[in-house]
Amino acid sequence: MVVDDHRLLAEALASALKLRGHRVLAAAAPAAGAADLVIARAPEVCLLGTAAPAEPGVFEPVVKIKRERPQVAVLVLGPVPSPRGIAAAFAAGASGYVRHDERIEGVERAIMKARAGEAAVAPQLLQGAFGELLNPAAQPDDEAQRLLSMLTPREVEVLVRVADGEDTRLIAAGMGIAPSTARTHVQRVLMKLGVGSRLEAAALAARTGLLDRAGPLGSGTD
C-alpha cells in the first residue's frame, strides 16, 4: 500500500510497482486517517510518505499502525532527513526510510528487505546519522534549548522523571494521571527526542544539560 499526501506521487509509485509485478492494495493521499486506512487493509508493506520528518508527531501514524497491525512493515518515504529524523522513524516502529528521489529499483530493494524483516535504509543516510550523532554541531546548551522547545511542560516533567529512573507506575502516581496516559507521554517524548528507549532519552538529557534547564517538576501542564 502506498499512502502519501500527494496523490500524484502515490499513484505514480503504485503504478510503477504494479508494472514490476507487485500487488498494490491501494494508493491514497489522505490528509488524515492514513493509519486507519492501513490498519483496515493490512498490507504486508506500507510506503508512508511524509514531507517533514523532523516535525514533532509526524510518525504517530507509524506508532498506531504497529500497535494495531504489528505484522505490517512500514517504510517511510520522505526527503533527506536529519539523523534525528531517521532515529524518530525507527523509534516509532518503521522498518526503513526511503528518500523521495530514490530510483524505483531502490524502493523495490527496500520493500524486499522490509518483507524479510530487515532494516531498510541507505548506507549514506546511516553514515550521516552516525557522523552527526558522534560529532554534534550544536553546543550542549544550544541543543538543550532546542530539545526543550520541542516538548510541552508536561513532557519535560515526564523526561525528568524518566531520567530519575521512575517507571510508568511511579510517573503516573507522581503526576496524578493514569498509567496509560503516562505511557503515551513517554512515547511522545521518545519520538520528539528521536531516541528509541528511556535509557537513551535519559542519556541525551544528561549529555546536553537539558535536566539542569528543565526547572522544577510539575511547573506546567499541556
Automatic annotation (TrEMBL):
Boundaries of every HTH luxR-type domain copy: 144-209
Pfam families: GerE (PF00196)
Keywords for the protein's UniProt record, in alphabetical order: DNA-binding, Transcription, Transcription regulation
Tagged with keyword Hydrolase: no
Transmembrane regions: none
PROSITE patterns listed in its UniProt record: HTH_LUXR_2, RESPONSE_REGULATORY
Keyword Transcription carried by entry: yes
PANTHER family reported for this sequence: DNA-BINDING TRANSCRIPTIONAL ACTIVATOR DEVR_DOSR
Protein's name in the database: Transcriptional regulator
Organism: Streptomyces incarnatus
Phylogenetic placement of the source organism: Bacteria, Bacillati, Actinomycetota, Actinomycetes, Kitasatosporales
